[in-house]
Amino acid sequence: MLELTMAAVTAADAGATAGMQMADAPSEPEAVLRVGRDKSVCRLSTPDDWLFVSRVHLEFRCGPAGVWSLTWLRGSQPDPSSEVRLTVGPHSQALAYGDTVPLPAGGSGEVVVQDRAEPRSVNVGFYHEV
After folding, report:
1. Do 4 and 24 form a contact (C-beta atoms < 8 A)?
2. What is the pLDDT of residues 9-39, one digit of tens each?
3. Rounded to an integer, what is the distance from CA 93 to the centroid of its chain?
4. Dihedral sign for Cα atoms in the order 101, 116, 109, 31
5. C-alpha to C-alpha distance for 4 and 35, rounded to whole angstroms
6. Distances in Å between the alpha carbon of 124 and those of 5, 6, 64, 76, 109?
7. Mean pLDDT over residues 122-127, rounded?
């Protein structure tokens, strides 16, 4: 099972957890959890006017043997208006636009989508229960 929690954070409410959303999916091949503005396909959705987040921005997908990966999906623009950073334990790495990275089995961490123009972010915590 992969469990996600998401908070949309602005400079005015940094540190607050109001508006937190949660989603989960079993660790079965082809299970998918998406994050973005399009509520029809995203289990976790951001405010409609947060254009630094694509309609479908992040995709968590379960592959063979219950291994989850994270993909920063390419949007309609050639260059993104955000940055994405993955933190697992003490290790943090920036994701390249369009990249896919594996998530640790039985691990937890955070994915932060940071607006390049304003002090606001989408913070997605994850926990992979094995």
Report:
1. yes
2. 887 665 555 568 999 999 999 999 999 999 9
3. 14
4. negative
5. 10
6. 6, 4, 23, 22, 9
7. 96
